[in-house]
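User: quick one - fold this with zinc ion bound?
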Amino acid sequence: MISYADYLQLLPKTELHCHFASTMTATTFIELAARYGVELWGDDPETLFDFADLPEFLVAFRAAHDVLREPADFERVAWEGVRAAVAEGNLRYREYYVNPQYFAARGIGYRDVMDPIIAGLRRAEADFGVGFRIVAAINRRDSPESAVAMVREVIEHGIPEVVGIGQDDLTPENTEDPTRFAAAYRLAASAGLKLTAHVGETPTATPDAVREAIEVLGCDRLDHGYRIVDDPAVVALALERGIGFATTPVSTTICSGWTLDEGHRLRAMIDAGLTVSVSTDDAMFFRTDIGKEYREGLMALGVDAATAKRIALAGIDISFADA
Ligand code: ADE
Ligand code: ZN
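Assistant: Sure. Structure tokens for the protein plus zinc ion:
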């Protein structure tokens, strides 16, 4: 007999929702920051990753991109992140949010970001057997026109591993407002790209944002989506359309301000029969890893072993990988 915690730790896992910069190890992050003279938002490693809420975290998240400059940095972070996740929680497959706009603003072009990341992830796939795909993320802080230009770039380059688009961060008004980027989603859909979006995450988010991402943007899958349970009609819509959710238990304690217990909206999503998978979101920043999300996250939500297995399998079913 093994303990339930060990079962959750050993379960083979995918993760469909993690931000590339957040898969860095803290050691590498601090080393690269020192190398490039990047001044961090704090200098005490004990408190560097303490955030009061989502907007405060997002300031740090944006700044962290500044330590990724040379192809070797991207490739190293890609490979190291997989090695760590295999050890931490038996990761077998991963999908990454990569934000080309963060790097474009620093003069680093689309291929200069994607090519070394893919080289590192391919090397990790050869070394550890962990497959991967990439979702190009629209930064909601930037304009809808800039989002369209980014999607155009994704389509023009046609990198096989870049299979979809998403949207993250918050608008300059600190809202989700998913339909602001409808034109970019229409363009992506016309090129056959998969569609996802961060919605229903924040303390002020609404189930309407979830509905709009499904009905207006035509998303195949959603990131977070917790607010859905505040409107049974949107739950019914997601069930009818077979929409899957890439949720991140630990990050909700900071980004949504919720406690991980049986009353959590994520537990209500599971109980409603929605297709839920589990990921880390921002492992370095929230001091989490894929093993911890299952071991501590699912256990705190009161999820039983059969349901945990269903969640692990959902991560395969709703992935953007080919058959
Ligand atoms: N970027 C990185 N993590 C995020 C999150 N949890 N919500 C919105 N944007 C993000
Ligand atoms: Zn996220």
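One thing worth noting: Residues 19, 61, 168-169, 198, 201, 251, 255, 281-282 surround adenine (ligand 1) (CB under 6 Å).
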